[in-house]
C-alpha cells in the first residue's frame, strides 16, 4: 500500500505553483522537489504560514560528495513544535563550479557523402555538461 503524501504538498503546490516540480513518498516520508530560485521562499512560508508552523530548526548540515558529477547538498531538519511534526528540506546543487565539460564528441571520421571526405568536426564536442542548477527536496515525518 502506498502512503499518502503530507497535506503540506497540496498547500505548497497551491502557494508556489510550478516552482513545486514533483513529490514522492519514500519510506513514509514525503519529499517535495522545488525549483532552486524559490528555496528561501519555501522555507520562510513553511515557517510563517498558519497550519504549517515549522518554527524550530533542529539541525542544518551539508554533504559534499567530493565529485564534480554529484551534488553538494544542504539539509535543514525543522519541526513544528505545536504538533510534533518533523520536516526535512534538502537543497542539492549540481555542477557547483559551473564546469562546461564535454560529455559527447563527434565520432564520425568521415562525412557520410560516400567519397570519404574527412569530417572537420571529428572528436570535437557535441554535448556539454549542464550549467549549475539546484533541486529542493522536502520530506515530512509525522
SSE blueprint:
Elements: H1 7-16, E1 20-26, E2 29-34, H2 39-48, E3 56-64, E4 72-80, E5 85-94, E6 102-105, E7 125-128, E8 133-141
Antiparallel strand pairs: 1-2, 2-8, 3-4, 4-5, 5-8, 6-7
Oligomer: single chain
Number of E-type strands: 8
Helical amount among residues, as a percent range? 10-25%
- Series of secondary-structure elements, N-terminal to C-terminal: HEEHEEEEEE
What's the CATH H-level superfamily name? NADH:ubiquinone oxidoreductase Nqo5 subunit
For the terminal residues, how far apart are their CA atoms?
18 Å
Number of domains: 1
CATH class group? Alpha Beta
CATH architecture term: 2-Layer Sandwich
The description of the largest β-sheet is: 6 strands, antiparallel
Q: Note the total helix count.
A: 2
CATH topology: Beta Polymerase, domain 2
Based on CA atoms alone, the radius of gyration comes out at 22 Å
Average pLDDT works out at 77
Which structural class best describes the helix and strand composition?
Answer: mainly beta
- Overall shape: it is elongated
Strand content: 35-45%
Low-confidence stretches: none
Amino acid at each position: 500500500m502506498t502512503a499518502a503524501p503530507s497535506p503540506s504538498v497540496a498547500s505548497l503546490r497551491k502557494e508556489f505553483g510550478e516552482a513545486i516540480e514533483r513529490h514522492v513518498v519514500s519510506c513514509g516520508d514525503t519529499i517535495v522537489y522545488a525549483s532552486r530560485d524559490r528555496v528561501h521562499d519555501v522555507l520562510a512560508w513553511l515557517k510563517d504560514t498558519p497550519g504549517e508552523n515549522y518554527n524550530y530548526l533542529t539541525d542544518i548540515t551539508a554533504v559534499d560528495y567530493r565529485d564534480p558529477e554529484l551534488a553538494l547538498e544542504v539539509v535543514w531538519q525543522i519541526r513544528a513544535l505545536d504538533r510534533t511534526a518533523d520536516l526535512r528540506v534538502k537543497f542539492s546543487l549540481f555542477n557547483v563550479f559551473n564546469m562546461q565539460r564535454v560529455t559527447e564528441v563527434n565520432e564520425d571520421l568521415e562525412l557520410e557523402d560516400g567519397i570519404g571526405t574527412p569530417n572537420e568536426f571529428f572528436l570535437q564536442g557535441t554535448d556539454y555538461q549542464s550549467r549549475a542548477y539546484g533541486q529542493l527536496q522536502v520530506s515530512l515525518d509525522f
